[in-house]
Write the structure tokens for this entry.
Amino acid sequence: MYVNGVTLKNRGIPDSHRLSVYESTGGYQALRKIFSEQVTPEQVIAEMKTSALRGRGGAGFPTGLKWSFMPKGVSGTKYLLCNADEGEPGTCKDRDIMRYEPHRLIEGMIIGAYAMGARAGYIFIRGEFIEPIRRVEAALEEAYAAGFLGERILGQDFSFDLYVYRGAGAYICGEETALMEALEGKKGQPRFKPPFPASYGLYGRPTTINNVETFASVPDIIVHGGQWFLELGKANNGGTKIFSVTGHVQRPGNYEVPMGTPFPELLEMAGGLRPGRSLKAVIPGGTSTAMLAGDTMMDCTMDYDSIAKAGSALGAGSVIVIDDSVCIVRVVERIARFYMHESCGQCTPCREGMGWLWRVMHRIENGQGRAQDIELLLNVGSRIEGRTICALADGGVAPVVSSIKLFREEYEHHIRHGQCLVGQRRAA
Amino acid sequence: MPHIEIDGRELDVAAGTTILEAARQLGIYIPVFCYHPKLSIAANCRMCLVDVEKQWKPLPACATPCADGMKIQTRSAKAKAAQQGVLEFLLINHPLDCPVCDQGGECPLQDITMGYANPHSFYQEEKRVVADKDIGPLIATEMTRCIQCTRCVRFGQEIAGVMELGVVGRGEKEAISTYVSKAVSSELSGNMIDLCPVGALTSKPFRYKARSWELKHTPSLCPHCSTGCNTDVQSLGKDVLRVLPRANESVNEEWICDKGRFAYAGLSAEDRGLTPLLRVNGRLQAASWGEALQAAAGGLESVVRKHGPEAIAALISPESSNEELFLFQALFRALGVTHIEHRLRQTDFRADAAMPLYPALNMSLEDLERERTILLCHAFPREQQPLTNHRLRKAALAGATIYAIDTVLRPFNFPVQGLCPETGDDLGTYRRLEELLQGATARAEEGALARLATALRETEDPLLLIGNDALQHPQAAELLRAIQGVATAAGARLGWLANAGNAAGAWLLGCVPHRRPGGETVPGQRTPSWSTAHKAFVLYGVEPEYDSLAVEAAQQALQEAEFVLALGHFTGNLPEQVQVFLPLASWAESAGSFINNEGRLQSYRAAVKPAGEARPGWKVLRVLADHLGVAGLAFNDLDEVQSAWQGALGDFPLDVPAFAAFPELAPEAAAPLPEGHLRLLGDWTIYTADPLVRRAAPLRRPAVCRMHPQDLQARGLGSVIELRRAGRPVVTLPVQADASVPRGCLWLPLGTAESVALGGLQSSCTVGRASSRQAI
Ligand SMILES: Cc1cc2nc3c(=O)[nH]c(=O)nc-3n(C[C@H](O)[C@H](O)[C@H](O)COP(=O)(O)O)c2cc1C
Ligand code: SF4
Ligand code: FES
């Protein structure tokens, strides 16, 4: 199996974040190939389409298609942004790419800029990521010094400047248009779409934004071809993908495996469950995605289509494993608090609804639940879902509604007896 | 052209039309909170969600552009569920204190709740409480009621041009706030009260005065500047309780400035003149109308007998109605009075012959938005014509380049390339600009002026606007001629920013010494001023000390008068020489008409009964005419007065030459300043510009003077200074450093007790630290 072979290829090599190491392992060959073989921007985009690479930031939008939306022949600056805000609870993959493979990200962005005619780019990094920020900044310096960035890159008629922007710690700034607002120096809150970033993005200019892992996949696609990448995975789900496996496993961490890898294999890689425990549930793509029952999950393969068919989403690939030792009400109460805290506040249903959901969850968890509370949660959720500007609100509803569907008896027990059905913890 | 269907009705719309706009075209109502046609689209309240075929999510009508073939339902089960859901979310944390909320009865949240909400709420948690903010004397806040629609925030950024309110916090802690507890100070701030769809921002002066449905609405006009904003005067019984904008896209759109909105508070000032007064044994005492009119006529007749009618000066406020202005000049011209004047804010009248028929903008306010290059000549419309200024701001936002030449530059709310010579030689600036336009080579230090010359030369048909400060200039005649020189050299059009509410009417209806109604010249008329001795004064709606540029001269002239008759609204600032006072009904208490800066004739009705025994000005003038034996003015109603002035004026053009030929101007050498003295500059501020607004308590702001920072430093001055002039009381004022004040000058706010004490702008003063009490 092709494990850790694309975006985390060099993770084990000492000083893998340095330019010399990256170049000695084939780094910047994709960029050089583009120039030496005179690959056109259109051919780059065609290759991306062939690869069936889908955005690794969560929504899984086909990258080649997104790149083809950038208008051609417009005057003025076009921007390329990298979303390195990595805020989704459970996700920690972009962090490792930036720590160990910053040049792979930079090379991917340079190729993207070439393909889309972007003149300037920003890498918006989550503010708490001190080490990754330092590494990316150092890598940018190296790349500038080596002529990979700036005016007339490698002597070609192509210039691209790239900067790091340090975020200030709001989950919502990972949403692409909120990220642009924040970059512009405003309060980070999503914009209504349309217009889409490709026509009205950063500073109102055509803009494309991709996730760190998306960009880091690009160099190998160019070197080995889109078809090669596609065949690593499966149709419509090209390549490999990093899964950040956390929760009740013995070796939590980032595992880059081919799309379509059966979930049991991934679980095995992560050390499997603790002895004597059974798999209760899995949140397959970060807390914004619906919870799936353990059994369902064991039948899934790790790719967008399989997880979608099971009723959830692959999201950013943040697999949270939950064994039979915990009370689901407690898990969801904590998740609900996160969404209340992180709602940007502009949309009425999200601003008011996230807090409402949490308050009901909180009183159930604390033994003060009321008979109608389960219906209330479902009802409030149904009035939030699909009625807001961005997907945060839907993400906040998903764990509540999906967990009620799967573990209704735990909720009922909590309400009736004021304590957990599962686990030792007595409610207050 | 997308073809769409809303609730089964088909329609073709222009590309880019939103669902909401299309629905409005069909007369289909969709509830909204955050949407406002004059503001950017935020799409945050989600109240306007509608059901669009083939979309699993309901879409916000306000923000979704129509696509061809769209089928939209505004009242389907899905749409209704979305609307009910949003309303419930809006209400869970809303206090529902409607019985004690001033917004009650005119509250979109209340109305839409009645129409769209599910009467049952499932919410049983505690409600959120938001700390209130004190954002100044005009806007009362009750932030717990806020629904975070951000209309006020967008208004500040997009319309007022100053971001004073913003959103702080996130999620359910999101709140509207000023930056670090500052007060809101924009001159357009009151509009946020109207925009707020709930009772979060309400009018502080109106607070708890009445329920909205009890109020009588009277369509009216704002008398306070030449924009002529349309207003809705709302009253209960005999009291005006508030003034709101009345929408008129061609004039004020749907805004008014805070002066127009809150000045009504002055109507009930303590010194409101409620009865006629007569001076008996040196003191003014209440008298009957009969006695007072007799005394007024007697006093005037005696002066005419002894000194001839030329010894009378008749001064009228340019905020008077056309009817008052016409009758006023007709009455006094019939007596033979030659000095009929509305221009107390001018001291240099040498260019009178060159003045236009009236100060016309020479274009519509709407057209102002489409200008590309504008030079503001001694104008600060932000305070002087706030909603005309709004059109300039729109022009600037649409890409116009706006320049300003002035003695002192003031803070505009849009980008302005300002030129104000540090030497104070503003006249020289225009003259030099003319030379540059004629091809002179710019000197190294003239970069900004040279750029302006290039811009004027390169723009086809640039526009020059002449503002209040030009007429107030000590060398107004030369200044105006220099402005004309620039316009000619640049091939520019000229327009006037008329300097008072009905200045256009005052000019057109002959309230200047040298012109009769319609502009006919009075032959041989030398233009007098305060410095010409008069034996009697008639003061109509003016307070000479507060409304004139030359306070000291006015005071001296009044001292020499044998008889002073005042007709007006207030008694507090009556000069001590006034022997008879006749109380006038205010604009809110009488009917009439004004002509605005565009030449637009607009009329208004009386909203309330006159206070006390005050009477509408036209009636008082008519009866006074009877007492003085002046025939031909025996009008029975306002319509007759209106026909009379319209007959005398005839049709007047909207586009008038900005200047007639200038007379020969003898060069005047400015007297050098005594050693150590500062030259006085100044202007009325937005809230000191007329007797009514000066009395509006909520609009009162502390007077602050301004000096160049280097002058302050060189003299070792702190933040409060003493101003001294020989023979006058010492005045203490806070001082602000302002690098645009020319060196050696001091900028004084006029229309204030301080400027009156100091004697106005005519001379110079010395300054010193307030604490040390030692003049420098
Ligand atoms: C609330 C919210 C938070 C998000 N946070 C992130 C994030 O931290 N990182 C990220 O790459 N994408 C995040 N996204 C997804 C981005 O909006 C966007 O889809 C993504 O950056 C596009 O890149 P991709 O096409 O390469 O996936 C978030 C979306 C939402 C709605
Ligand atoms: S859904 Fe929530 S987080 Fe997203 S824009 Fe609306 S209020 Fe902000
Ligand atoms: S009116 Fe459309 S979202 Fe507020």
